[in-house]
Amino acid sequence: MRKLITPLLSGLLLLPALLPLSAQAVDGSDIMQKGGANPAAMPCITCHGTDGKGMAAAGFPRLAGLPEAYIAKQLADFKAGRRENAVMQPIAQSLTPEEVAAVAKAYAELPKVNIKPGPVERPQPGSGAWIALRGAWERNIPECTLCHGPAGVGVGDTFPPLAGQSALYIENQLKAWRGTKAVAATRKTKAVAAVPPSRRNDPNGLMAHIAVDLSEAEIKAVSDYFAGLGESKEAFDESQHRLR
């Protein structure tokens, strides 16, 4: 009997390693630090930092504290090509559905950004604060906070926080939604071909409509404004979704 039981126990101990990934518990934190089962799915911390706050200088976004459903959707959009990025597309395509769900949950459980109070005085017309708080309704551009919440804290699973993201990342996303318009040749310059938007995953084309009507200066100004709102060292009150 002992001779029969010993091999059986040994087989049971090896069973988890033999099970397919979908049948095993997937650790999102492990994926963040070591990558997915597919070697092409690199560790998330390579670009997004060990704390999930991103790398501002390189334009890699903060993921810590973003809604779980939002992160999962972005990975699905990268995989489907609705969002184009040379770094993220192959990574998203290499993650299993279980890994996507696990890593989205792990990042959502990290601390949310603490928002610094915005300017109290009336913003200057045309400034980044003006566009963020009042928009440019004469061009049918609503204020950013209408969808992204007061001080850009984010609303639900669809509209992510803008405060706490780097200016470079926000600027790059607005340009990704806008694409580049064709420019005719002149005596001094060559013709520039139109580049279609590389991001097409916004609800009802809302961001594409807004981005295409913003000037380069406005894009930079509003990006700088939201980047300047995070991150406060004060405690975050989850019940009020604001600083205490």
Automatic annotation (TrEMBL):
InterPro entries: Cyt_c-like_dom, Cyt_c-like_dom_sf, Cytochrome_c4-like, Cytochrome_c_Oxidase_Subunit. Residues 23-111, 121-230 form the Cytochrome c domain. Gene3D superfamilies: Cytochrome c-like domain. Keywords: Heme, Iron, Metal-binding, Signal. Residues 1-25 form the signal peptide. It comes from the Bacteria. This is Cytochrome c553.
